Predict the structure.
Amino acid sequence: MTYDLPVLSGIKNLLIGLWVTLRHLFSHAVTLQYPTERWTMPERSRGVVVLLSNKETGELNCTACMLCAKACPCAAIMIERHRGDDKKWKIDSFSVDNSICCYCGLCEEACNFDAIALTPKYEFSTYDRPSLTYDIHRLQELGRDVDYTPRVKKAPAAAASATTATTEAALTPTPTAPKATTETPTNPSEKGESA
Ligand code: SF4
Ligand code: SF4
């Protein structure tokens, strides 16, 4: 009784496949049952951009300085502003287009006011592309639960005095010690050894 080579090869491959299945049957699963299970994202992972608010007043930290919009390589940030009666910039609108944002984090780097941040939040897929542009209200709501440490800023008076002291220190010449002028006589007569 003879068997064709393809039949033997098929049986061999079938057994290899069954062996692989058997080996993984009782091992720990490396996949998650999404969406009932989700990965915990690393703390500094860069997901959706949000706007941060003052923890006490709840107001946005943004001063409408435009630095983030200028730093954005994708032109994903759109800001409209005007001068208020107090001569400070006021925000009219602030939006981020997540369909072109590349999550580079340059806006967060550029901001000096703890006002914008990238968060580990994700899962914002949609079939409606225009809805990926988030307005100021949505950005603020997304940032409400983001914990951050406000950077410590110097009081204006302290900062000014520190600057003045630094400038004065730089302009004041450093006194130098007088040069020692010790001369060693070489002529014996100068030493008082002459007869
Ligand atoms: S988020 Fe920061 S950098 Fe951007 S406009 Fe507001 S204060 Fe300026
Ligand atoms: S993460 Fe990068 S691309 Fe996205 S808004 Fe900020 S600067 Fe622009």
